[in-house]
């Protein structure tokens, strides 16, 4: 199959499975903000983010190796899957022994509510890492349709358990966490038996010669993931410490609207990683990466501009009145999320080249910048200081990677358009936050300008794909047309 056509095909399939689960976070906001108080929502956010920090530590980041080595035709799938299970089981065993250390670490947050839910954190980590391992292996086997079906079912599970635990039983924070845990458990069972993953559990086939390169590839990604967590989440803990749980509840709510950008990007990146690895030995890969990034950039910035324009309206619709002030933190978070998407794309070059140490170094730079800016800006600008710090951190990481990766794949990043896109978003963000008279007119004109600037790139890509499809069409069908 043509590489562009395969990328589009996989993107569509991933969209079916990923769209529902990613969009779920967005659509359930009215429920969460009506059944949970600002403080409860702040606690839920800290619990989830703590669990997300622990996931790569417990699993040793083995999911990254599962995808990278599972897609490699020279690898034995049984060795890859069994090695993943052994690594995960070992990591979780250590995690159980480290219970006293976890209690001490969580006590530093100063939140008694987090201390009350340590058991749920352990359940969340166990089921989430298991589901991620199974899903990553299914992807590595290029069973994208099964992956998509699981995404749809997982969405249904989550909705059912949220309604049951939050609305019917009114279990609050505990109900939120249990809904996630139960959905992950059912998803794991579905993948295990539907994909017949038990066929790949062969301890007798496990060789150190296979597991060793997998660990060498994924272990440097553990601190990388931790540093990403610092960039993404450290501001939540600093905001909680300086401004309180209620302020963090509003900040956490404001994060949900930029999730739409992550949704658009995540669907594409899942498919893109497969294509990037498949084309890793192609002579034309630089041109391939350049063309794809040009369209990807256009799509991300158009979506971001539209979201900023409608931020107040979306916030009004999606959250209860007590959470409505969260709209003022959304614009800078949309900018941050947009650049996090660009960072993910540039990181795919390191993945193709197996340069996980460089992933670590660039991510460390972003984390350090984020911490310094958080402590500098939050006391002055409050919650928006944290949002702006996150944006700057991602922008710096992207610049570092854009320059460094040219040594491996000389991608043309379209710098003039990238700078202009960023400038438009920045002006939109400042306008929305200040909301001067006739701000909606100015926002609309800027959004229109963003669409005009980026439409041609998307149109050219669509036409190229259609032309390729027509050239590959059987001649007798072409004549009938």
The major beta sheet can be summarized as: none
> Could you give the distance between the termini?
23 Å
Please state the oligomeric state of the protein chains shown. single chain
Task: Specify the overall morphology.
Answer: globular
Structural category is: mainly alpha
Helical run tally: 22
Mean pLDDT: 84
> What share of the residues does DSSP label as strand, in percent?
under 5%
Please give the number of β-strands: 0
Summarize the helix and strand pattern as letters: HHHHHHHHHHHHHHHHHHHHHH
- Point out poorly predicted stretches: 474-481
Radius of gyration: 22 Å
Helix content: over 70%
Note the main attributes of this structure:
22 helices; 82% helix; single chain; 481 residues; disordered C terminus; mainly alpha
Quick structural gist:
The protein has helices at residues 3-27, 29-35, 38-59, 62-70, 77-97, 99-107, 112-115, 118-140, 144-168, 172-194, 208-218, 221-243, 245-254, 259-278, 285-309, 311-318, 330-353, 356-381, 383-404, 415-434, 439-471, 475-480.
Give the helices and strands, then pairings.
Elements: H1 3-27, H2 29-35, H3 38-59, H4 62-70, H5 77-97, H6 99-107, H7 112-115, H8 118-140, H9 144-168, H10 172-194, H11 208-218, H12 221-243, H13 245-254, H14 259-278, H15 285-309, H16 311-318, H17 330-353, H18 356-381, H19 383-404, H20 415-434, H21 439-471, H22 475-480
Helix pairs in contact: 1-9, 1-14, 3-8, 3-10, 3-12, 3-13, 4-5, 4-8, 4-11, 5-8, 8-10, 9-10, 12-13, 12-18, 12-19, 14-15, 14-17, 15-17, 15-20, 15-21, 17-19, 18-19, 20-21
Description:
By secondary structure, the protein is an all-alpha fold. Helices cover 82% and strands 0% of the residues. It has 22 helices and no strands. The model is unreliable at 474-481 (pLDDT under 50).
């Amino acid at each position: 199959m043509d590489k562009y056509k395969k990328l589009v095909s996989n993107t569509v399939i991933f969209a079916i499975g990923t769209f529902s689960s990613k969009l779920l976070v967005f659509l359930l906001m009215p429920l969460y903000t009506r059944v949970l108080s600002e403080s409860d929502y702040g606690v839920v956010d800290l619990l989830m983010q703590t669990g997300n920090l622990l996931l790569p530590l417990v699993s040793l980041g083995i999911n990254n190796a599962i995808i990278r080595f599972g897609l490699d035709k020279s690898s034995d799938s049984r060795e890859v899957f069994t090695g993943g299970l052994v690594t995960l089981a070992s990591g979780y065993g250590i995690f159980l022994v480290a219970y006293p250390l976890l209690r001490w670490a969580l006590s530093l947050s100063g939140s008694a509510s987090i201390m009350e839910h340590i058991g749920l954190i352990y359940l969340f980590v166990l089921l989430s890492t298991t589901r991620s391992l199974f899903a990553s292996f299914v992807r590595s086997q290029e069973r994208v349709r099964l992956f998509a079906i699981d995404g749809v079912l997982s969405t249904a599970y989550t909705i059912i358990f949220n309604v049951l635990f939050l609305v019917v039983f009114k279990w609050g924070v505990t109900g939120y966490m249990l809904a996630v845990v139960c959905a992950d458990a059912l998803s794991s069972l579905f993948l295990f038996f539907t994909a017949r993953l038990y066929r790949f559990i062969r301890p007798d086939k496990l060789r150190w010669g296979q597991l060793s390169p997998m660990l060498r590839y994924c272990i440097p990604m553990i601190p990388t993931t931790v540093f990403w967590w610092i960039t993404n989440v450290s501001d939540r803990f600093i905001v909680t410490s300086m401004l309180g749980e209620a302020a963090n509840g509003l900040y956490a709510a404001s994060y949900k609207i930029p999730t739409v950008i992550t949704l658009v990007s995540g669907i594409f990146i899942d498919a893109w990683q497969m294509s990037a690895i498949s084309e890793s030995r192609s002579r034309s890969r630089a041109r391939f990466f350049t063309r794809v990034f040009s369209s990807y950039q256009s799509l991300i910035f158009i979506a971001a501009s539209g979201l900023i324009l409608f931020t107040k309206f979306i916030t009004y619709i999606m959250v209860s009145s007590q959470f409505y002030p969260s709209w003022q933190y959304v614009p800078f978070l949309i900018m941050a999320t947009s650049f996090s998407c660009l960072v993910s794309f540039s990181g795919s070059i390191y993945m193709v080249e197996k340069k996980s140490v460089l992933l670590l170094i660039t991510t460390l730079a972003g984390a350090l910048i984020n911490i310094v800016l958080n402590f500098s800006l939050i006391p002055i600008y409050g919650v928006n200081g944290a949002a702006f710090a996150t944006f700057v951190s991602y922008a710096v990481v992207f610049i570092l990677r854009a320059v460094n990766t040219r040594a491996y794949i000389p991608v043309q990043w379209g710098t003039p358009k990238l700078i202009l896109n960023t400038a438009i978003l920045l002006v939109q963000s400042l306008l929305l936050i200040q909301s001067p008279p006739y701000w909606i007119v100015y926002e609309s004109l800027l959004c229109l300008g963003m669409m005009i600037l980026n439409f041609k790139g998307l149109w050219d890509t669509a036409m190229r794909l259609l032309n390729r499809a027509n050239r590959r069409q059987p001649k007798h069908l072409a004549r009938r047309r």
